[in-house]
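Appendix B. Raw example, untouched.
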Amino acid sequence: LTTFRIFTYSNQSPHYSFINYPLRLIESIEIKDNVTLLFQCKDIRSFRLTFVSAEKCSFWWKKFTEKTLLP
């Protein structure tokens, strides 16, 4: 997480993937199943991040919502 972008990657087999996305294009962030963050974007894209615990999920939800709020 930077000031302008979210960048994350997973190297777990079989789903090697990465996300590199501008923060200002994120429209909403929801917590699903207490361990998954669901991102809805302004250009119709969506993606999700899954965490190992509900505490880590809520911590990152707070971080992302702070960064995506308008100044």
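End of appendix B.
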